[in-house]
Amino acid sequence: MYDMQSANRVWGQFLKLKGFKKFQIPDTCPDCYTIRDFCYDYPIGTYILGTGEHVVCIKNGDYFDSWDSGHTTPEMVTELKKIMAETKDEKVRSSISELLGYIQ
Questions:
Q1: What does the pLDDT look like over 66-97, one tens digit per residue?
Q2: Total domain count for the chain?
Q3: Residue ranges making up the domain that contains 26
């Protein structure tokens, strides 16, 4: 049995192999920080958020998903443009450009 591309284990490993950094988001339930909250707090930029079992793209304050996942709590985040600006590695820059091409 194989994982879906949207499984954290799959996309997380892909991003790691491409040189991406991941940042943990604290879980402060019962007032958990949601994907909707993240969109409100970060209205500019392109991000990949991982929940416990799913991945979501955030672009300029909007989330793109196959269902309404705005109420879920993200566990990790990767900011694509920040990494693009910080890296000199052409393979990483190329990978980010490719990912951004899919979501622009």
A1: 889 898 888 777 776 666 666 677 776 676 67
A2: 1
A3: 8-103
